[in-house]
Design a protein that fits this description.
- This protein is an alpha+beta fold and 333 residues long.
- α3 runs antiparallel to α4.
- The chain is built from 4 helices and 20 strands.
- The strands form 7 sheets. The chain has a 6-stranded antiparallel barrel with strand order 2-4-7-10-11-18. It has a 3-stranded antiparallel β-sheet with strand order 3-17-14.
């Protein structure tokens, strides 16, 4: 039996082919449609996944800070953009501003210099020991530095009082001194009281050599003798006082120890005795005057010296002198 391929291409063959396919589908559906599907195995419960632990700690809640409503921006003339409706609130940004007190600035480190500073100075006016009321006025010639800070600048005035050292023939000055700032700036006019004493200074700036009297106490100067005529008067008074005693009349008297000479009670002896007493008093006063005013020292202006400070130099203790109020009443209109 041969299979005719032309039959499949014919209309009748195609109808038969479609019918056979449909019949085959019906048979398959009828056979497998009634069979119950196999039951699936029961699902086992999955183990619970470990959850993260949450720790809750009690704390102080910050109070809610009332935020003021920001002012609504006013429309700029000529700007292009939506204008908020009247009565609507502007949106509040989620920001929190905490205001803290400003930190106090660190206290400034005081400008000080330790005990025993030698301040180089130079006299401004001449000094004479016969007038001890004359002050010692000087100028600081070099800056005084300590720890990288200028404690006493050059050009500062120093003021003190003079005293005569008769044993060493020098002008001594110790006690309270004053530094007066005479510089440009806010420090002009400041005053600082210190305890110090004067030391002599001998320094040759060209050869950088110090003299043998450098640093000795007191100011050396020129000794001026003024007691030459007073010494002659002292010698004359002593001579005349002794001569009047020798010119007195005397008389012999007998005593337990034998004969003794005593002045006679006459007018001549009385006159000589009074004159001798006056001459002795004059000689004593002349001797005291020579010891007191027989010489004086003259220290010229421009004499260099050291001011040895016997305390800690603290520039923060400098004060400005308060203004002196006028006592005169204002003129009447």
């Amino acid at each position: 039996m041969t299979f005719d391929r032309d039959f499949l291409t014919s209309p009748t063959g195609q109808v038969v082919l479609v019918a056979a396919v449909l019949l085959l589908g019906v048979i398959v559906a009828h056979r497998y449609g009634k069979a119950a599907p196999a039951a699936l195995p029961a699902a086992k419960p999955a183990p619970a996944a470990p959850l993260p632990q949450t720790l809750i700690r009690g704390g102080v809640k910050f109070p809610a800070v009332a935020r003021p409503a920001p002012p609504s921006p006013s429309p700029v003339p000529g700007s292009v953009g939506p204008t908020p409706a009247p009565g609507s609130k502007a949106p509040v940004l989620p920001l929190a501003v905490f205001v803290t007190a400003p930190e106090a600035p660190a206290a400034p480190v005081p400008t000080t210099a330790p005990f025993g500073r030698l301040v180089p100075c130079q006299t401004v006016i001449a000094l004479e020991s016969n007038r001890l009321e004359t002050p010692i006025i000087g100028l600081v010639t070099e800056d005084v530095w300590h720890d990288g800070k200028c404690v006493i600048p050059a050009g500062t005035e120093v003021h003190g009082r003079a005293a005569l050292d008769r044993a060493r023939e020098r002008i001594a000055a110790q006690g309270q001194w004053r530094f007066v700032w005479r510089t440009k700036g806010a420090d002009n006019g400041l005053e600082l009281a210190v305890d110090a004493l004067v030391l002599d200074r001998e320094f040759d700036g060209e050869s950088h050599m110090w003299g043998e009297h450098d640093g000795s106490a007191g100011l050396r100067g020129q000794v001026v003798r003024t007691g030459d005529d007073r010494e002659l008067k002292l010698f004359a008074a002593s001579f005349l006082a002794t001569a009047t005693s020798a010119l007195q009349d005397s008389r012999l008297t007998n005593g337990l120890l034998g004969e003794a000479s005593a002045p006679a009670a006459t007018a001549r002896n009385a006159l000589l005795a009074g004159t001798g007493a006056i001459l002795r008093e004059y000689a004593q006063s002349m001797r005291e005057a020579i010891a007191r005013d027989g010489f004086y020292l003259r220290v010229p202006a421009g004499k260099p010296f050291y001011l040895y400070v016997t305390q800690t130099l603290d520039r923060s203790q400098a004060r400005r002198a308060p203004p002196i109020a006028s006592s005169s009443a204002p003129p009447r209109p």
